[in-house]
Amino acid sequence: MSMHELPFPQRPVIILGAGIIGCATARQLLRAGFSVILVAEFLPGDQNIFYASAWAGAAWHAAGGISPDQRYLQATTHRHMRQMALDVESGVCIVDAQEYLEQPPGTNSSLWGKSVLSKFRELELGEYPPNFSTGWAYETLVTDPTIHLPYLHKTVVTLGGQFIRKKVESLGELYRLYPESSIFINASGLGSKFLADVQDEACYPERGQNVFYRTENCRELYFRNGQEYTYIIPRPLSHGVVLGGVKQRDDVSPAVQMDIARDEIARAHRLAPNIIPENPPEENLSYIVGIRPSRNGGFRLDSEKIGDRVVLSAYGFGGAGYAYSYGVADTLLKMVQKVEEENVVVS
Ligand SMILES: Cc1cc2nc3c(=O)[nH]c(=O)nc-3n(C[C@H](O)[C@H](O)[C@H](O)COP(=O)(O)OP(=O)(O)OC[C@H]3O[C@@H](n4cnc5c(N)ncnc54)[C@H](O)[C@@H]3O)c2cc1C
């Protein structure tokens, strides 16, 4: 069937990728009444190091050094996730956070987060460790990907979305598979470096490795803001905390690097000795390795007309795919609606 035989709203929107970006986008499109098919090599529940979404922390933290538009994407994500936190099955939880700053906040710092976060306050002298310049306390959101991805899978299927497990070599292969569709969303993360008709050379792998420490003391988040990159992200529903972090550009080795793990435990102990003992028992430790889909110049979120089709690109989210996810999904929904409008209002 040619694409013109099917009215626009019935043509499935094809999403390449079923990580947090593809799945969050499918949910938002389906809720708006669109028909959606996700095509991906890895699906919720899979545990491959190149499936970044399985390994994220994942905490909502206001990023510093980003544009007003990017802040709004994060703020939108916060709004949606706060709503999801009402449902324990979503894997999203509200937790108390303490953030310590090595330096006083400069221009374009993380301070904008206080316009979004609940219960934000500056810590008093003595409430934060003496080697820091200042500190903040607030409520934030943590997403447990081991629960959230299966939850999204179920939500998408319940709303009528379809998951197809398949690796493709190019976007062209998808056009041939779905000739009736006119909108294709490329949410393939690092895959965009390798797709024959994308080959985005700005994309690069950035290895992350975290320690999971099993403890019931798992309701508080700690974040060190400055040169040293250390966090303790609680996972109340998995009865533990995630310690990190590290960013290793162009490293894709799957094996756990124990020197890094030991350093992360030592840093986490210095940050929150009340939660992380100096020598946590080995039987309570496990390790997480994942490859972030990073991109020189930042992520892509744009629309292109390619022949009769529209291709929306949404990849390259590096270490912040969860923090941007639902904001990106809402933006893609608006882009799809714009194409719909052009199809409905024919001259
Ligand atoms: C250790 C670690 C900690 C992190 N902590 C945080 C955090 O605290 N907060 C935060 O916001 N983010 C965090 N991140 C980053 C976050 O995990 C990523 O930004 C996010 O998961 C990217 O999602 P994505 O959907 O773009 O990509 P992915 O999850 O990698 O999904 C890509 C999808 O595309 C599919 N695909 C690719 N190529 C093809 C192809 N050719 N054919 C078919 N399918 C294809 C894949 O199979 C997969 O389904 C962390 C990452 C790591 C590794």
From TrEMBL:
Cofactor(s) annotated in UniProt: FAD
A Pfam entry, by short name: DAO
GO cellular component: cytoplasm
Highest taxon, organism lineage: Eukaryota
InterPro entries reported in the protein's UniProt record: DAO, FAD-dep_OxRdtase
Lineage of the organism: Eukaryota, Fungi, Dikarya, Ascomycota, Pezizomycotina
Protein name as it appears in the record: FAD dependent oxidoreductase domain-containing protein
Binding site for D-dopa: 231, 292, 319
Keyword Oxidoreductase in record: yes
GO biological process: D-amino acid catabolic process
GO MF term list: D-amino-acid oxidase activity; FAD binding
Family label: Belongs to the DAMOX/DASOX family.
Binding site for FAD: 168
Positions of the FAD dependent oxidoreductase domain: 13-332
UniProt keywords, alphabetically: FAD, Flavoprotein, Oxidoreductase
Keyword Lipoprotein appears in the UniProt entry: no
